[in-house]
Specification:
alpha+beta; 47% helix
Length: 79
């Protein structure tokens, strides 16, 4: 998968999860994809101060991204 294809797949994953985040007053932005397997995102809005944002990141965001791009190994929230 090319870098452009990988970025597109990760963006599709974020579009799938975004409505759930927005419904809770948050959002998410793709910051970068490093070495084709490490994704950096920024949780925004209410998600920045939410006490369960790490659970959201792992259970929701990371799972969804890996569904679209199985080669992704880590998803990290950048503050």
């Amino acid at each position: 998968m090319t870098t452009e294809e990988l970025t597109s797949e990760v963006q599709k994953a974020l579009e799938e999860i975004r409505p759930f985040l927005i419904s809770d007053g948050g959002d998410i932005t793709l910051i970068s994809i490093e070495e084709g397997k490490h994704v950096k995102v920024r949780l925004e809005g209410a998600c920045t101060s939410c006490s369960v944002n790490q659970m959201t990141l792992r259970a929701g965001v990371e799972t969804t991204i890996k569904k679209f791009a199985p080669q992704i190994e880590t998803v990290v929230n950048i503050l």
